[in-house]
Design a protein that fits this description.
This protein is α/β, with parallel strands linked by helices. It contains ten helices and six strands; from the N terminus they run βαααααβαβααβαββα. It is elongated. The structure holds magnesium ion.
């Protein structure tokens, strides 16, 4: 018998390639505004976007504020005039058009499917995530999809995991959360009292997760190991 019966999987940077999605949406929304995309422009955006998310997670700014401010600041940095709200709307729509899958993700799900219930546990905007998952090669393997916006609560809140476990009728002792983010995925698993696998390609170590894996193949090995 596999070590776990229920596997909760994060979407972005675990199964789906968010960086590719972000790059593509940014490129298209810039081109729409007559600005050519290049590495430096991308870096400018990332340098604006990242601290705003950090401020949001510290509770200093709302999500709406973040969404508008990032494109206002970005336009200023590029020296162009653009409506930040409209730009953010275009960008979000374009995010939904790209569901690139990370190498090894389909193989991971294929390996787990005969042994485990598989559920996607993602923080995100419902419309974007649903569109990215539609016709996506990972979709047929998923027994359930839990999107924070639809539930009104997200990772790392214990309440989010409680609702997921109840919906799946899952035994917490036989459930594991797999994700790349220590703050949402791994801290969430701790809050919920379930095991976790931190998928990280860095050499960095953390005491928080139950296991650490630097490839998706290793994630499969940990989950499928005999108890
Ligand atoms: Mg992630």
């Amino acid at each position: 018998m596999a070590r776990y019966k229920t596997v909760l999987l994060d979407a972005d940077n675990t199964l789906l390639d968010f960086e590719a999605t972000e790059r593509q949406a940014l490129r298209r929304s810039l081109e729409q505004r007559g600005v050519p995309f290049n590495g430096q422009v991308l870096q400018t955006y990332l340098d604006i976007n990242r601290p705003l998310w950090a401020a949001h997670y510290r509770g200093e700014i709302s999500r709406d504020e973040l969404m508008t401010r990032r494109f206002g600041d970005f336009a200023k940095a590029l020296g162009i005039t653009a409506d930040p709200e409209e730009w953010n709307r275009d960008y979000l729509r374009m995010l939904g058009d790209c569901g690139d899958v990370l190498p090894g993700a389909v193989e991971l799900l294929q390996a787990l499917k005969p042994h485990c219930t598989l559920a996607l546990a993602t923080n995100g905007v419902s419309d974007i995530q649903r569109r990215r998952l539609k016709d996506n090669p990972v979709a047929p393997y998923l027994d359930a999809i839990f999107i924070s916006e639809e539930m009104g609560i997200g990772k790392p809140a214990k309440g989010y995991f409680d609702r997921v476990l109840t919906a799946l009728n899952a035994d917490p002792a036989a459930t594991v959360m797999v994700g790349d983010d220590l703050n949402s995925d791994i801290q969430g698993a701790i809050n919920a009292g379930i095991d976790s696998i931190w998928y990280s390609q860095t050499k960095e170590k953390s005491a928080l997760p139950t296991y650490q894996a630097n490839s998706l193949a290793q994630v499969a090995e940990i989950i499928l190991e005999e108890r």
